[in-house]
Amino acid sequence: MAVPAGSLNAVRPTPTVFELEALEGLPCGCVAAAYRARPWDVAVVSLEAKGPHCILSGHMNGQVLRLGDPSEFDEDEDTEE
Fold this sequence. Notes:
- The mean pLDDT is 79.
- The protein has one domain (17-80).
- The chain has a four-stranded antiparallel sheet.
- The protein contains one helix and four strands, in the order E-E-E-E-H.
- By secondary structure, it is mostly beta strands.
């Protein structure tokens, strides 16, 4: 089925729900990512990549490690310095 050329301009980008704030390598070789879920203003930390030599059976791609108020995560960063 042919699609009229003018109809391709009607596609609108969807708003971003999750905004990447930080990536961090874990000692086991896995990678964790911190996101901010904009519509709800919730911070999400998830496991993005399992390390090739990680022996922790609980680590799975896409696993949510932490949920919370974004300001709580900002405080955690301040105390580490």
